[in-house]
Design a protein that fits this description.
Blueprint: E1 35-37, E2 45-47, H1 56-63, H2 88-91, E3 97-98, E4 101-105, H3 116-134, E5 137-139, H4 147-158, H5 199-218, H6 220-223, E6 224-226
Antiparallel strand pairs: 1-2, 3-4, 5-6
Length: 227
């Protein structure tokens, strides 16, 4: 796109037409970056139309030049690919059955997840849902603090964004820590209130919580109940 001219992006994914600045009536911005909310907590946002072949370090450098994103934490960086997937929040129920025909279940990448591990994980949980149903039992969903639940929530209704006409705009996603519920911060050693989790410490705490909750869910008496 850059080869087509310096104004190509601002008349493409950064098109400002139809948008106004309430602080400057009658003016139009030169270009805009649309941020689409990608989890119910409002902690993860997608930069719309930013597929790119730039190296990851260069993406971070360029994106932080955008006003307001100087201190942004990037959960996932952009790339170019083609993917075929269902509009899962509209078509699938919470156990990955087709709403129009519950005899059918979908699994893997076509449900709207990206990555080998994510696709395999959704395949496994779909199999467990199907097996429980065949046995006349109900499989409880994974705890919301886990990566598996984060993926399920994203593809079965946790994705919140909508386009200008109010229609859901669903896009596939890898699992990332931005999809997890926030974790309670420990007290500050100096007694000055809670301290903030950053970087590796936060991710380690989220992982420990997820593993502990997953152990409880995996216990037969906890995850499966007779209907």
């Amino acid at each position: 796109m850059a080869e087509r001219g310096s104004d190509t992006l601002r008349y493409g994914p950064m098109k400002p037409v139809g948008l106004s600045n309430p602080h400057k009536p009658g003016t139009r911005p030169y270009a805009v970056v649309q941020l689409r909310q990608d989890n119910s907590l409002g902690t993860l946002w997608n930069m719309v139309g930013f597929q790119t072949k730039l190296k990851h370090g260069e993406q971070v450098r360029v994106f932080r030049m955008i006003p307001g994103l100087e201190q942004a934490e990037f959960a996932r960086l952009g790339g170019l690919h083609r993917n075929t997937f269902l509009n899962s929040p509209k078509l699938l129920d919470a156990t990955l059955r087709l709403k129009a025909d519950p005899r059918l279940r979908f699994a893997g990448q076509i449900t709207g997840v990206e990555g080998y591990v994510e696709s395999a994980a959704i395949g496994l949980i779909t199999g467990r849902f199907a097996a429980a149903e065949c046995l006349g039992r109900k499989l409880m969903p994974p705890p919301p603090t886990t990566a598996l639940s984060a993926l399920l929530n994203h593809i079965t209704g946790g994705h919140l964004s909508a386009d200008s006409e109010g229609t859901r705009s669903f896009q596939p996603m890898n699992v990332n820590f931005g999809l997890f519920p926030p974790i309670a911060t420990p007290p500050h050693p100096g007694g000055k209130g809670p301290r903030s989790f950053k970087g590796f410490d936060r991710k380690r705490a989220l992982s420990r919580r997820a593993l502990a909750d997953l152990d409880v869910w995996l216990a037969p008496s906890a995850s499966v109940a007779a209907e």
